[in-house]
Write a sequence for this structure.
C-alpha cells in the first residue's frame, strides 16, 4: 500500500517538511476547517443569539452570500 505522506529530511536527517497526497491534503484541510468552526463556536459561547433571517440579511447586505 502506498503511503499518503512522505517526510522531507535535510542532509542531517532532520525532518523539515511533509509531502501529502491529494487525498491526505483534502482530509487535513477538512480537519483544519472543522477545528476552526469548533473554535469559533467555543469563542462565541455565551454571546446573545439572533434570528437566522437577520443574520442572512446581514450577509446578503455585505455581499458575502447571494442567495
Amino acid at each position: 500500500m502506498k503511503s499518503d505522506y512522505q517526510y522531507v529530511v535535510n542532509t542531517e536527517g532532520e525532518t523539515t517538511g511533509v509531502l501529502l497526497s491529494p487525498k491526505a491534503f483534502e482530509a487535513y484541510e477538512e480537519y483544519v476547517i472543522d477545528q476552526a468552526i469548533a473554535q469559533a463556536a467555543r469563542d462565541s459561547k455565551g454571546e446573545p443569539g439572533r434570528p437566522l433571517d437577520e443574520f442572512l440579511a446581514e450577509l446578503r447586505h455585505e455581499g458575502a452570500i447571494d442567495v
